[in-house]
Design a protein that fits this description.
This protein is mainly beta and about 270 residues long. It is built from 3 helices and 17 strands. A hairpin with a 3-residue loop joins strand 9 and strand 10. The protein is globular and about 60 Å long.
C-alpha cells in the first residue's frame, strides 16, 4: 500500500512543460575536470545541478518517497563511461513518519570516463546524457533535460579546468570512502542488530543504500548524538550497506565512510548509481 506522501507525488508530479525550458527547479550542467582528455587515462566529468532555494533532489538510497536522478549516457567511440559516484546526502523529513535522503542547493554527481589509448590528439571526446529527476518542495515535479560536452584529446597530461575546480573539490569531500584503522570506525553485527562505533564522535548518522537490508526504525535509530549507533534490522539475506557520517569536536567538517557487512569481495554491496 502506498504511503500518503507517495500518493501525493503520484497526484502532483507531472512532466515539465517543454514550452517553459527555464522553469526548472534544478538546473543541470555537464562539466569536465580537465581541459583535455589524455589517451589511455580517465577524465572526470560531473552532472552539476543548481537547485532552487526550498527545493531538493533525491539520493539513490533508501527513501520513503521520491526517486533519484536517472541518466542515459551517449558517448563518442573513443571514451567509455564508468559508474557514477555520488556524494553523501542528508536526512530530510517532509512530514511526520516520512524519511528521505536528499540534496539541497547543489548536487554534483561525479562521472569517470576512460579515454581510449588510441585516441588521437586533435580528435574530441564527446559525452551526452538524457536526464530525468524529481524536484520537490511542497509539491514534486518530474523534470528532464539533455546535456552534452566535448573535450579535445590532448598531447600528454591535460591541465585542470580552473573554472570547475571548486565544484569537483566540494563533491569529492562528500564522497564516502572505506574506513581505515586510524579512523576509529568499528562495525559489529549480531542477530538483527547493527552496531557502529566511531571513536571521538559527537554525532553519527547512517544512510542505507537501496537493495541493502532495511532497518526497522530508521527515523528513530539512523541518527544519534554520541559515538555509537545501534540499528535494528529487518530479517533478510541482503548485505548491510550504506554511508556513515561522523561529526567530531576536533574537525570543522564531518567525514563520510562506506559501511559494508559482510566485509570482502564475496559480499559485494549494492551500488548507489544513476
Amino acid at each position: 500500500m502506498l504511503t500518503p506522501i507517495v500518493l501525493l507525488i503520484a497526484l502532483v508530479a507531472a512532466p515539465r512543460d517543454p514550452a517553459q525550458p527555464d522553469a526548472l527547479h534544478a538546473r543541470p550542467t555537464l562539466i569536465a575536470e580537465s581541459a583535455g582528455a589524455t589517451p589511455g587515462r580517465t577524465i572526470w566529468f560531473a552532472l552539476d545541478f543548481e537547485i532552487d532555494p526550498g527545493w531538493h533532489m533525491y539520493w539513490p538510497g533508501q527513501n520513503d518517497s521520491g526517486f533519484a536522478l536517472r541518466a542515459e549516457f551517449e558517448t563518442s567511440p573513443n571514451v567509455t563511461i564508468g559508474e557514477p559516484v555520488w556524494p553523501a546526502p542528508h536526512r530530510y523529513f517532509p512530514t511526520d513518519g516520512i524519511l528521505d535522503h536528499v540534496f539541497e542547493e547543489r548536487l554534483t554527481v561525479l562521472v569517470p570516463a576512460s579515454v581510449s589509448a588510441d585516441a588521437k590528439p586533435g580528435d574530441r571526446v564527446s559525452i551526452g546524457a538524457e536526464l530525468t529527476w524529481l524536484a520537490c518542495a511542497e509539491v514534486c515535479i518530474a523534470e528532464d533535460a539533455e546535456v552534452s560536452l566535448q573535450v579535445p584529446v590532448s598531447v600528454g597530461e591535460a591541465p585542470a579546468d580552473a573554472r570547475h575546480a571548486k565544484a569537483f573539490a566540494e563533491a569529492r569531500a562528500r564522497v564516502p570512502r572505506d574506513p581505515e584503522p586510524d579512523d576509529g570506525v568499528c562495525v559489529e553485527v549480531s542477530d538483527q542488530m547493527l552496531r557502529i562505533h566511531a571513536a571521538g564522535a559527537t554525532r553519527l548518522a547512517f544512510y542505507p543504500l537501496e537493495g541493502a537490508r532495511r532497518p526497522r526504525r530508521l527515523i528513530r535509530d539512523g541518527e544519534r548524538e554520541g559515538d555509537t549507533l545501534e540499528i535494528e534490522l529487518r530479517e533478510g539475506a541482503e548485505p548491510i550497506a550504506g554511508v556513515l557520517e561522523v561529526w567530531t569536536e576536533r574537525r570543522a567538517v564531518s567525514r563520510v565512510f562506506t559501511i559494508r557487512w559482510p566485509v570482502g569481495p564475496e559480499a559485494a554491496a549494492p551500488e548507489a548509481g544513476s
